[in-house]
Write a sequence for this structure.
C-alpha cells in the first residue's frame, strides 16, 4: 500500500498543469496566437504547442481556426488590391494606345530640302526668301557665288496604325480575365439553348462513358447558374 501511495504521488507530481484559456487577456491571446502560427508553420504538433504554452489542444485548435480566418481575409484583401492595381495599369495602357491610334491617323508631313548655288549681283541681293535661308557671308563681296536652300513640304494622309488597335484589344481581354467575365463557349451552338433536363442527360452520358455509376435519379436536378 505504501508503495502504491508513493507511485501515486509521483504520478501526480509529473502531471502537467494547464492554464484556463478563457482566463487569458486579449494581449495574452494575441501573443499566444503569434507563437501558435509560427510553430504550426514549422510543423510542430498541436500537442507540443499547447504543452509549451500551458493550454489544451482544443484551445490551440480554436486559435488555429482564428489564424486561418485571418490569413484568408488577408489573402482576399491582397488579391483585391492587386486586381485593382493591375486594372489601373490596363486603363492607363489602353488610354495611351487610344491617343497613339488617334495620332497615327493624322496627316504626315514630309520636308525635303535642296541646296543650290546662285549668283549674287553687285549692289543687289538676288536671294529670295527669309533671311535664315541666305548663306552668304557678311565679308563675301557682291557678284560672287552664294548658297540658297529650297524647302518642299509634302502632306500624306494616313489611315492609322492597326498595331495600336491590337494593344487596345489585348487590354480589354486582360481586363475581362481579371474580372472573371470570360464564359466558356459551348461546343455546339444548340447547347446555349439546352434545358435543365438536357444538361442532366449530358452529365449522365459522361458518367456512362467513364464507366462510373450514374447519380441517384431522385437527386435534385442540375440547375444552370
Amino acid at each position: 500500500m505504501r508503495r502504491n501511495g508513493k507511485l501515486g504521488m509521483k504520478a501526480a507530481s509529473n502531471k502537467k498543469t494547464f492554464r484556463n484559456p478563457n482566463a487569458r487577456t486579449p494581449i495574452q491571446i494575441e501573443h499566444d496566437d503569434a507563437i501558435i502560427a509560427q510553430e504550426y508553420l514549422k510543423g510542430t504538433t498541436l500537442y507540443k504547442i499547447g504543452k509549451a504554452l500551458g493550454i489544451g489542444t482544443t484551445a490551440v485548435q480554436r486559435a488555429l481556426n482564428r489564424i486561418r480566418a485571418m490569413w484568408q481575409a488577408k489573402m482576399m484583401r491582397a488579391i483585391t488590391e492587386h486586381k485593382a492595381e493591375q486594372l489601373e495599369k490596363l486603363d492607363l495602357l489602353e488610354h495611351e494606345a487610344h491617343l497613339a491610334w488617334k495620332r497615327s491617323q493624322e496627316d504626315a508631313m514630309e520636308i525635303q530640302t535642296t541646296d543650290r548655288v546662285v549668283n549674287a549681283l553687285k549692289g543687289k541681293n538676288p536671294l529670295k526668301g527669309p533671311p535664315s535661308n541666305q548663306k552668304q557671308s557678311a565679308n563675301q563681296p557682291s557678284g560672287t557665288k552664294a548658297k540658297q536652300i529650297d524647302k518642299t513640304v509634302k502632306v500624306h494622309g494616313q489611315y492609322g496604325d492597326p498595331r495600336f488597335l491590337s494593344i487596345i484589344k489585348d487590354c480589354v481581354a486582360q481586363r475581362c480575365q481579371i474580372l472573371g467575365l470570360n464564359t466558356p463557349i459551348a461546343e455546339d451552338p444548340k447547347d446555349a439553348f439546352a434545358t435543365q433536363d438536357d444538361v442532366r442527360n449530358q452529365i449522365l452520358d459522361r458518367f456512362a462513358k467513364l464507366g462510373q455509376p450514374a447519380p441517384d435519379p431522385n437527386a435534385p436536378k442540375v440547375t444552370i447558374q
Remarks:
- The chain has three domains: 16-105, 107-156, 189-225.
- The first strand starts at residue 108 and ends at 119.
